[in-house]
Amino acid sequence: MEFLVSPPIVTFRESVAAIPEGCRQPASTVVLTANKACAITLRAVPLLDSVHEALASANEEDVARIVERVAVSDRAGNLHEKLVTAFSGSEIDIASLWCFGPRKVGPNILLNQSKHVAKMAMWQDIRCLLEPASELENVTLAGSPPAEGFEVLADALSSISAGFQLAMAAGPLCGESMTGVAIVVEEVSVDLVAQDEAELCEAYGPFSGQLIAAMREGCHKAILASHPRLTEPFYTCEVQVAQDSLGASHDVLRRRRGKVLDEDVSEATYTHIITASLPVVESFGLADELRSKTSGAASFQLKFSHWEMIDQDPFYKPQTEEELEEWGEYGDKAHNLARRYMDMTRRRKGLRVEEQVVQHAEKQRTMSRKK
């Protein structure tokens, strides 16, 4: 019986890189609902390393306890202290924290800096769960929204959060989950002068659905405008090899983008132990190649280590004469790993892939025609 074996699947993550020195800040993104009644202004910024590590290392149950406003454990209290310490070194006000994502427990955050939207109650609820009851009498929400149009907007705040959750669950590059991204909502305005609330739901469907679609589209546009990057998983590879095959082992790891972290020698067996960091996507077929190059004298073990950002722009195109001469007009995908992995993932998921079908259109066909 024949077996159809599909290629191995590697999960990537999408993120946003910090703005390089000398580059200007990307402009804010403005999206409208289908009925043009609501406008959302937002931008995407990378999270600080301390904030990202605190959220990535946190237990999802503790984050869910805070979000769902139930009894907070000691670990959730420690997470609260880590977030306060991490946010203290950034320009972001922790009181503007709206929600986490994706699935309300992920390593991405939604921030509210709009003057027309009251500060979310989630951070106040965290205080209520952590502080003594005697100190909660004067706890009030920051900000007072205007009366005009806020009744419609207040009912639709959950729709904006739902659009954020969808955007973080499937990013704009290749539909992978986001990590280390903060979406800042700068302004949310509702125009009820041209059409009343009843007309909002007739021509284009429910207003909440329009907000979800607009928020998801706005998050994707803001991410694409803020240096999007792919993040790939890494293994910790420990290779045990004899001294005669040490050089061949290093060559195999180097060709697979491995980074040697440490090298030691066992005094009992005089076996060299190489500890390296190896991308997961480059680990397939490592056993056959390593045994072939070392004549079976090497053995290895793999263990998941961490996630690391690919410092390459997936949409890079050569600009200068030297780059055009070296990489061509459309760039070399063999050297742009981010573009190659993005196209590979999009092709696997059935998404649209931008690729040049005809490479040399100026060449003529040499086949003879039969009369």
Summarize the structure in words:
The protein is built from twelve helices and ten strands. With 371 residues, it is α+β, with helices and mostly antiparallel strands. It folds into two domains: 13-18 and 26-134 and 145-226, Ribosomal Protein S5, domain 2 (2-Layer Sandwich), CATH 3.30.230.10; 230-309, Alpha-Beta Plaits (2-Layer Sandwich), CATH 3.30.70. A hairpin with a 6-residue loop joins strand 4 (97-101) and strand 5 (108-112). It starts with 12 loop residues before the first strand and ends in a 22-residue tail after the last helix. The relative contact order is 0.14. Mean pLDDT is 78; it is low at 124-149.
CATH class of the largest domain: Alpha Beta
Number of helices: 12
Secondary structural class: alpha+beta
> Helix proportion of residues, in percent?
25-40%
How many whole angstroms does the radius of gyration measure?
26 Å
- Strand segment count: 10
Order of helices and strands: EEEHHHEEHHHEHHEHEEHEHH
Please mark out the parts with pLDDT under 50 across 5 or more consecutive residues, or reply none.
124-149
- Which overall shape is indicated by the principal axes computed on the Cα atoms? globular
Average the pLDDT over all residues and give the rounded result.
78
Distance between the termini: 48 Å
Task: Based on the coordinates given, report the CATH architecture of the largest domain.
Answer: 2-Layer Sandwich
Examine the coordinates and then state which fold CATH places here, giving the name of the CATH topology of the largest domain: Ribosomal Protein S5, domain 2
Largest sheet: 5 strands, antiparallel
